[in-house]
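Each letter names a residue; structure tokens follow underneath. Both lines appear below:
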Amino acid sequence: MTKPVRALTLALMIAGSAVAAPATAAPAEAPPVGVVGLCVRWGVDPLRIADAIVIESSGNLEVDALASAAVRSAAIPKPEDDTGGWRALSMGFGGVEPPASPPDCGSLRDASDEPATPAPAPAPEGLMAT
């Protein structure tokens, strides 16, 4: 074998072994697992939940935060019968099924519980409102 051919062969062998060597991958993190009970309500946007409060924690702050962020960022249509009150929602992560019974949102105040803003009093006679 001539010297240039031997050098090329050696270079290809080195390059090939570098490519063929398996890279050590970082270990994959386990997906979050748990069940979160939320109370949610819509605001003015009929496709976005405005408020989400964790009522029943999964015991994992990462899972709880993921659940809250997921419902706020997803396009979830406001139910036609929505009155502005809180609605219960359970979410399971990592293949865990949520419980059949939703969490209780009864301890939270509904928008319908808020006192209505009184109408402004009429201006005294002889004064013009501007």
User: Anything to note?
Assistant: The CA atoms of residues 84 and 111 lie 5 Å apart. Residues 3-20 form the longest helix (18 residues). Helices lie at 3-20, 61-73.
